[in-house]
Amino acid sequence: MSNLSSFLVRRATQYYPIRQIHLTRYFYNQRYFTKKHEWVELTDANNKQNEVRIGISDYAQRALGDVVYCELPSIGAKFKGDDTFATLESVKAVSDCYMPVDGEVSGVNEKLKNEADLINKSPYANGWLIQAVVDEKTKNYITKSLMNENQYNKFLETTKEADDH
Fold first, then answer.
1. β-bridge partners, 123
2. Whole-structure pTM value
3. What residues have CB less than 8 Å from 54, skipping those under 6 apart?
4. Is 102 exposed, middle or buried (CB count within 10 Å of its CB: 0-12, 13-18, 19+)?
5. Which UniProt keywords are given for this protein, alphabetically ordered (predicted)?
6. What angle in degrees, to the nearest 10, is found between the helix axes of 16-28 and 3-14?
7. Looking at domain 35-164, does it have CATH number 3.30.300.180?
């Protein structure tokens, strides 16, 4: 093997573990969706294994229009599944956001106070609404009962077909 080939092989294998870590992180942070278009993402923030991040889907933010104001709950507030936990005001309408699972609010996206349009620009990365602590039973419910991204996309397709008729 030539020196150049040997160098390229060493360089390629040198970066392999970084790619592997990235893929592990991607699968760990999988989002789950409700039929009301909220999403839940299991996170590892602050080493809390039962903390989730919650927001609205891209489909929901497009339907809502340009978000201009966001009313979020206070830290420590407890909600049951399907309780209203936030209100979003857009140029089109005011919409409630429903808690997808039982949990206690452990954090809110403070950026939304001044930049509510982050929900439109980046509903999954920067436009999340709250973080909540859930119990182990709820964590299992999320992975078994809510829709993963593929199931949610199929749900949207059937919903759009139903709206056409």
1. none
2. 0.77
3. 38, 39, 40, 41, 85, 99, 100, 128, 129, 130, 131, 132
4. middle
5. Lipoyl, Mitochondrion, Transit peptide
6. 20
7. no
The pLDDT tens digits of the residues spanning 84-116 come to: 999 999 998 999 999 999 999 999 999 999 999
Q: What is the DSSP string of 96-147?
A: EEE-SS-EEEEEE-GGGGT-TTHHHH-TTTT---EEEE--HHHHHHHHHHSB
Q: Is the dihedral of CA 88, 89, 90, 96 positive or negative?
A: positive
Residue with token string 């893929």: 23
**Token pair recorded at residue 160:** 């759009």
* CA–CA dist 29, 88 (Å, integer): 25
**Radius of gyration for the alpha carbons in the chain, expressed in angstroms and rounded:** 19
Domain ranges of the chain: 35-164
Q: Which two tokens stand for residue 86?
A: 């936030």
